């Protein structure tokens, strides 16, 4: 029960309502309010005691003033995000941590309407529906992780309700699968440009692009491959920390003859076959595309191109997955129609095709 005490002061009688809650003989929560009338003090005390009896109320008080930004920082740090999160995920979480308004919201008292307002503002400023959808995804992941790992009473329903409304109003949406493939003309222009610049550049982009094009490897995977990771007898390579939907796993993948030929002509000067920085490779590729006025082509599209090419050669799903490293064959189902089109080998007489 609350204690009401009176004290005569210069302005008249004042009434203080004191609430103390004990557990196992120890005071776990205490708060005081002062009023001009005793009836007001009693009413406040009764209301607060009722509020504090609700499940999780005390736990919420213990995390008073906890911000969304702090929750996201704990999620990043507790789960070693800088080394274990993918580059795009980490970048997006860092963006949310620094966001001028979202990061300052009270994580315990956050309302669905505040999150809907954040999403609406992001869309108004030009962010795409799938991009903003990631705000919801990573925020939900962070709240769930901190609710479990740090026993913080965060309300996931707030996020789920906001997500429901935003999806219904088409403010957010799942990302669409990219189907962009480079034409031979675009590849010829890229290879010609890289071939000219590689004489002076620190990264032999022509070789990197060819290896990506015929191995389906991502830029960071390419930069991690060591000479000791090669299995000469079976023409395969160990890709360390290969990205899968829910984890990163060291994975053996086979190399096409073209990709194998690219590796065989690399100088053995370092531990790694391509001892370069993945971000630098991506930046050089994007910069050259802009220079050549090649629209909407990304380095990652080379992975899609390789997968499509293998199906066009008549390869089946098990054989293709042996090269691409897909654990789930369902993600390769969308390519199978290419086998029935009877398309000729796109690179049969290509001047840049890596030969043994």
- Distance linking N and C termini: 86 Å
Largest sheet: 3 strands, antiparallel
User: In the CATH hierarchy, what is the architecture of the largest domain at level 2?
Assistant: Orthogonal Bundle
Helix content: 40-55%
Q: Name the overall outline.
A: elongated
Order of helices and strands: EEEHHHHHHHHHHHEEEHHHH
CATH topology of the largest domain: hpI Integrase, Chain A
Number of folding domains?
3
> Averaged pLDDT, please?
90
Please compute the radius of gyration using only Cα atoms: 29 Å
Fourth-level CATH superfamily of the largest domain? Intergrase catalytic core
Number of beta-strand segments: 6
Flag low-confidence runs: none
Topology:
Blueprint: E1 3-9, E2 12-23, E3 26-35, H1 38-52, H2 57-62, H3 68-78, H4 81-84, H5 87-98, H6 112-124, H7 129-149, H8 156-168, H9 184-197, H10 205-215, H11 219-224, E4 230-231, E5 236-243, E6 248-254, H12 257-264, H13 278-291, H14 301-312, H15 317-324
Antiparallel strand pairs: 1-2, 2-3, 4-5, 5-6
């Amino acid at each position: 029960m609350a204690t009401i005490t009176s004290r005569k002061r210069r302005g008249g009688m004042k009434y203080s309502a004191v609430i103390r809650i004990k557990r196992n003989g120890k005071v776990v929560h205490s708060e005081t309010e002062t009023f001009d009338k005793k009836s007001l003090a009693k009413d406040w005390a009764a209301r607060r005691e009722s509020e504090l009896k609700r499940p999780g109320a005390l736990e919420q008080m213990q995390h008073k003033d906890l911000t969304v930004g702090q929750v996201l920082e704990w999620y990043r740090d507790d789960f070693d995000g800088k080394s274990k999160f993918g580059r795009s995920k980490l970048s997006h979480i860092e963006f949310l941590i620094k966001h001028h308004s979202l990061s300052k919201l009270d994580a315990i008292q956050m309302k669905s309407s505040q999150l809907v307002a954040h999403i609406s503002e992001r869309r108004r400023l030009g962010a795409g529906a799938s991009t903003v959808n990631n705000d919801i995804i990573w925020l939900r992941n962070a709240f769930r992780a901190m609710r479990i790992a740090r026993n913080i009473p965060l309300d996931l329903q707030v996020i789920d309700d906001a997500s429901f409304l935003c999806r219904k109003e088409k403010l957010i949406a799942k990302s669409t699968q990219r189907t962009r493939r480079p034409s031979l003309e675009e590849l010829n222009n890229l290879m010609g440009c890289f071939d000219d610049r590689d004489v002076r550049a620190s990264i032999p982009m022509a070789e990197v692009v060819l290896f990506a094009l015929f191995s389906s490897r991502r830029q960071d995977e390419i930069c991690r491959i060591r000479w000791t990771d090669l299995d000469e007898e079976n023409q395969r390579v160990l890709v360390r920390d290969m990205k899968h939907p829910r984890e990163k796993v060291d994975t053996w993948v086979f190399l096409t003859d073209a990709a194998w030929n690219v590796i065989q002509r690399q100088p053995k000067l370092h531990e790694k076959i391509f001892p370069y920085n993945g971000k630098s490779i991506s930046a050089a590729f994007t910069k050259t595309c802009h220079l050549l006025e090649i629209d909407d082509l990304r380095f990652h599209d080379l992975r899609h191109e390789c997968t499509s090419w293998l199906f066009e050669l008549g390869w089946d799903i098990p054989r293709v997955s042996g090269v691409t490293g897909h654990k789930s064959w369902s993600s390769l189902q969308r390519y199978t129609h290419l086998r029935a089109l009877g398309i000729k080998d796109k690179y049969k007489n290509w001047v840049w095709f890596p030969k043994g």
